[in-house]
Amino acid sequence: MFGIVSLAAAFSLHPVLVSVFVGLQFASFGRLGTLLFQTLLELVVVILFTYLVGRFIDRRRFADFGLHLSRSWWLDFGFGLALGAALMTAIFLVELALGWIRVTGTFRTMSGLSFVLVFCTSVLFFLFVGISEELLLRGYLLTNLAEGFRWFRWLSGDAAIAIATLCSSILFGIGHVSNPNATLTSTFVIVLAGIMLASGYLLTGELGLSIGLHVSWNLFQTSVYGFSVSGLRLPVTVVATEQVGPRVFTGGPFGPEAGLLGVGAIVVGTVTIAWWVRSREARLSLCSSVWTPELR
Question: Domain-by-domain residue ranges, the chain?
């Protein structure tokens, strides 16, 4: 039951965001406010869903889905924010140096609206999206799949976790299929991004790093450097840019998540996550709390 409900909830979120996001590119700030309200509502729904299903079906505490908000959780969150910003900055600088991107302006926003106001709204939007997607797909779905696959005695623990990670990441990729300019390549790269995001959760048992990385990756991609984020754009950016480089590297109108530069950033990001966990905890192993709950 929990698997069916979680899959339905995951698929229900993204098409709504896409339709509103596309319309937003030609709309007023009132539409942007509506988008922010919808993402907040979706976040509330995901939190309530996770809490209720976790409590009454999974017998897990809400915090056990990666939300033990300790000092280390916030340190991981801060590192995730820095990592996402650094990875997207690296993509921007590489494309700029190779002449694959043109800078067409700075501090662009909707006509007649405050840049600061619209930018802050975009920050909140990506924060809500990052929390809801990570809590649902990594915190809840990956956790339950990993725990469920370990029931099969012919599957090793590592194999069960690997399959659960792959399944949740494939769902993450499928959730972006309806985006403008989506291709088989973009879907594959987003699956890889899902694995990168899952690595932070699997290695720490918490969502702090994954949420931070998800938020800043999206924010810097479109509201700072003017790329499309999974084929979509918000009407605000610090640096307005135009893609002119080879699509196989830049991802073209879909953004870096459909190109080789995006793949490179994902590989570097995953390795950096492993380095961070090892340097902080003097270990590098999967966190058993992800698939072995302390049952209520």
Answer: 2-290
pTM of this structure: 0.89
- Residue 81 pairs with which residues in a beta bridge? none
End-to-end CA distance of the chain: 19
Q: Measured between alpha carbons, how far is residue 268 from residues 12, 70, 212, 258 in Å? A: 31, 27, 16, 16
Calpha distance 104→96 (Å, rounded)? 12
Do the bridges between strand 101-109 and strand 236-243 make them parallel or antiparallel, or are there none, so unpaired? antiparallel
* Cα distances (angstroms) measured from residue 176 to each of 16, 112, 173, 185, 194: 12, 32, 6, 12, 12
Walk along the chain (296 residues) and give the pLDDT tens digit of each residue: 444 444 445 444 454 444 444 444 434 455 667 778 888 999 999 999 999 998 888 888 899 999 999 999 999 999 999 999 999 999 999 999 999 999 999 998 876 778 998 999 999 999 999 999 999 999 999 999 988 887 887 887 788 899 999 999 999 999 999 888 899 999 999 999 999 999 999 999 999 999 999 999 999 999 999 999 988 888 889 999 999 999 999 999 999 999 999 999 999 999 999 999 999 887 888 888 887 766 55
